[in-house]
Design goal:
Length: 419
């Protein structure tokens, strides 16, 4: 007859059984805590520390260039909320990036708070893959990546440089400016990440990268090739244009050239002028982009926060002294015209070349806390009236870096490799 196990052995077996159950429960909680725990500014779930490895896509003729995987089903990267995360934010320290512009370095220029640095974007139904500088640079080996547009796109360009430069030896990287170009070179990779100043994409009277403050902005009709000739041969392109168009309900369009003695300038509705620029851009893309080799991105409008009365604040205030986000998830500032978003949608819907739309507008809308405000280098000295009223000179358009533009690049990274 078989004897029962001895009591010590029986207890040991039960111990391992319970240990296995406990470990299984821990793994389950880590894997699914994003769905079990609330996402809020005060709660960082365990899953926030776990980043997914997307499944590789099946090889097929529709696979986009540079894609190595696919996005999770039902995943909208641009729909989510901001999560407080001191464990992985910021992605780098301001002092660690020598390429930051003095118009971006808020801490260096005396910003007393740091809370704006610790917010991470969390989509509702999925996770954003961790930014991988090595993968980015290996992908760019022997290639060119270019941001084209205004100073907001330049900010995103500098953010990306800050995200990748740390893994490159000091003697194997450089940044230099030539006319409208700012070029970061990773020598060991024979790769460049570039920025090209063209605030309207078309030719304008504000095309000088150093002297572009003009009283009346004028864009030359159907002039995409003026700048477009400098974009040829680029492998990954990231376009933006918006804030420079916002001068009122109409915009000045030049028929002819800026060299004409008699200039024919027409005031047209801003939406029509912007639509003309988008038509020009699509025409250039169609003639110069190989959808089997190249990728094109377009970044939506970056919201500004010039009137605090719109979010229930001081009727005479703006982003100055704002250190908290806007609570209303449906808030939409009047400076971000939905009619322009509609123009973009209508025009891009006509493109036969895939264009990846980086819809950063809504997710950036609550971030009144993340602007450079008064904590930046000024173009000129302040007068006595300005010094007495910081609201009058606070920059509520541009963003502190590190900060929200690093999130834009995380989304760019996700869409580039896991579309």
């Amino acid at each position: 007859m078989e004897l029962p196990p001895s009591l010590p052995l029986f207890r040991k077996t039960r111990f391992y059984h319970y240990l296995f159950l406990l470990l299984s429960l821990v793994v389950f909680l880590i894997s699914y805590s994003a769905f079990l725990l609330p996402s809020s500014p005060s709660v960082t779930s365990l899953a926030n520390l776990i980043w997914p490895t997307p499944k590789p896509t099946k090889k097929n003729k529709d696979k986009l260039p540079f894609a190595i995987g696919e996005a999770e089903k039902e995943c909208d990267l641009f729909s989510g909320n901001w999560v407080w995360d001191e464990s992985s934010r910021p992605l780098y320290e301001e002092s660690e990036c020598p390429y930051l512009l003095p118009q971006q370095t808020c801490q260096e220029h005396g910003r007393p708070d740091k809370d704006y640095l610790y917010w991470r974007w969390q989509p509702h139904n999925c996770l954003i893959p961790r930014f991988d500088a090595s993968l980015m640079l290996e992908t760019l080996r022997g290639k060119r990546m270019m941001f084209v547009g205004d100073s907001l796109n330049r900010g995103q360009f500098i953010s990306l440089v800050c995200l990748v430069h740390k893994i490159i030896p000091n003697d194997a990287k450089s940044l230099h400016k030539v006319d409208s170009f700012t070029i970061f070179t990773a020598k060991n990779y024979n790769a460049t990440i570039e920025f090209y100043w063209a605030p309207f994409l078309l030719e304008s009277n504000a095309d000088s990268p150093g002297k572009h403050r003009v009283p009346d902005r004028i864009v030359r009709k159907d002039s995409i090739n003026t700048h477009g000739q400098n974009w040829k041969g680029v492998d990954i392109m990231v376009f933006n244009t918006y804030i420079w168009w916002m001068t009122g309900r109409t915009f000045k369009i030049l028929n002819g050239t800026f060299d004409d003695n008699i200039k024919h300038i027409a005031d047209v509705p801003t939406e029509d002028a912007y639509g003309m620029a988008m038509e020009n851009l699509l025409r250039w893309i169609k003639g110069n982009v190989d959808p089997k080799r190249n990728r094109v991105f377009f970044t939506s409008m970056s919201p500004s926060h010039a009137w605090s009365k719109e979010w229930g604040g001081d009727p005479n205030g703006n982003c100055y002294n704002e250190t908290k986000m806007i609570d209303d998830p449906n808030y939409w500032g009047s400076d971000s015209r939905k009619s322009i978003m509609q123009v973009i949608g209508e025009e891009f819907g006509k493109s036969k070349v895939p264009i990846t739309f980086l819809n950063i507008t809504q997710l950036s809308m609550p971030r009144k806390d993340a602007h450079t405000s008064i904590y930046k280098e000024r173009w000129g000295p302040l007068c006595q009236e300005e010094r007495a009223n910081p609201v009058s000179y606070a920059d509520c358009i541009h963003w502190c870096v590190p900060g929200i533009q690093d999130v834009w690049n995380e989304l760019l990274f996700a869409k580039l490799f896991y579309p």
